[in-house]
Amino acid sequence: xxxxxxxxxxxxxxxTLLFACKNEVQPETTATTIDTITVKTLGEYxxxxxLFPESFLQEDDLQKWTELIDLQKSMVSLKDLxxxxxxVDLLALNTRIKKMEESPFPAPFDTPQIKSxxxxxxxxxxxxRYFTNYYTDDSLGPAYQNLYRFYNAFVDRIxxxxxxxxxxxxxxxxxxxxxxx
Length: 181
Known about the structure:
By secondary structure, this protein is mainly α. It is built from 8 helices and no strands. The longest helix has 44 residues, at 137-180.
């Protein structure tokens, strides 16, 4: 009787192992797969990039502010959206933003308004980079659009500060001319 009990136990164990252990291979998710999905999805999201006018960048103070020019180059590079390197482009953008935050700002732009907008661009770049690693359909595209929206606000504020400075100088010179007459 013990022989039949051992055979029965062996058969049950054998069937359990055969049917319980299926050797299914699950596909591996790699960074390349994520980048490919990212490109397909981000193509649906259109972004507008505001660039600094060439005449604006030619001014004396701004030619020395290389961090601003480098930041603009990074944003252009990211907009072109190299399919293989969106994560690399975002890392480069973060590095340039940190360098810009640590560097001295030219006199008219050394204001909390400009620095806070730059920090917002940096935070949004980090958020976008996060979504390239932990991809979800409904979050990467809007984060990518918001990155450009925050950068465009940063550009608009720099341009408006320069315009305000020029307006103040114009009013000051007009007032000085009236006093002289």
